[in-house]
């Protein structure tokens, strides 16, 4: 009877050691995904002017070393001249102003299939009645392990 607790403790200790092993044959993903609009079809480029009522294809190339999971597109006004830490290029800004009817587009999308390369391609019509002026267009991408990258550019919505 004295041997049962001894074997129980030995088995318990062995299970703990086995569960603490970190060698699962797969290395950790320590690399963020990449996102770029700097190619021929990438849109919009910094300082691009978009006309109200027109339809545009917002395009960016995203890649990851393991697998992509999701992306988002965010278009919002920059009437207060704020910046983003990932912003590419600088454009001439109009005077600061209050928003009356700004365009706000924020959508999230899933990337299926565990792919390592994907082209974002979202068709958006700029509403006829939104405020003209300075805006930001921001793309972000997340890989399957949670790493995220983003890029933002200044754009203008014009008459």
Helix-strand topology string: HEEEEEEEEE
Largest sheet: 6 strands, mixed
CATH fold-type name: Immunoglobulin-like
Shape: elongated
Q: Based on the coordinates given, report the CATH architecture.
A: Sandwich
- Derived from helix and strand composition plus strand pairing, the structural class reads mainly beta
Describe the model:
The chain has one helix at residues 3-19; strands spanning 34-36, 48-51, 55-63, 68-77, 87-88, 105-110, 117-125, 133-143, 148-158. With 159 residues, the chain is mainly beta. The strands form two sheets. Strands 2, 4, 5, 6, 8 and 9 form a six-stranded mixed β-sheet that branches. Strands 1-3-7 form a three-stranded antiparallel β-sheet, with no helix packed on it.
Short description:
The protein has one helix at residues 3-19, and strands at 34-36, 48-51, 55-63, 68-77, 87-88, 105-110, 117-125, 133-143, 148-158.
List keywords for this structure.
elongated; mainly beta; Immunoglobulin-like; 1 helix; six-stranded mixed sheet
Fold topology:
Layout: H1 3-19, E1 34-36, E2 48-51, E3 55-63, E4 68-77, E5 87-88, E6 105-110, E7 117-125, E8 133-143, E9 148-158
């Amino acid at each position: 009877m004295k041997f049962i607790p001894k074997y129980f403790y030995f088995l318990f200790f062995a299970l703990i050691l086995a569960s603490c092993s970190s060698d699962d044959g797969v290395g950790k993903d320590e690399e963020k995904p990449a996102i770029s609009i700097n190619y021929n079809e990438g849109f919009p480029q910094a300082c691009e002017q978009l006309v109200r009522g027109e339809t545009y294809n917002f395009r960016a190339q995203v890649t990851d070393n393991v697998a992509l999971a999701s992306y988002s597109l965010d278009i919002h006004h920059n009437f207060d001249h704020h910046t983003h830490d990932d912003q590419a290029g600088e454009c001439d800004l109009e005077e600061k102003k209050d928003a009356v009817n700004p365009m706000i587009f924020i959508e999230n999308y899933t990337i299926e299939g565990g792919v390592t390369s994907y082209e974002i391609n979202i068709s958006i019509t700029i509403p006829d009645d939104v405020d003209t002026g300075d805006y930001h267009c921001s793309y972000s991408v997340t890989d399957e392990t949670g790493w995220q990258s983003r890029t933002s550019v200044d754009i203008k919505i014009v008459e």
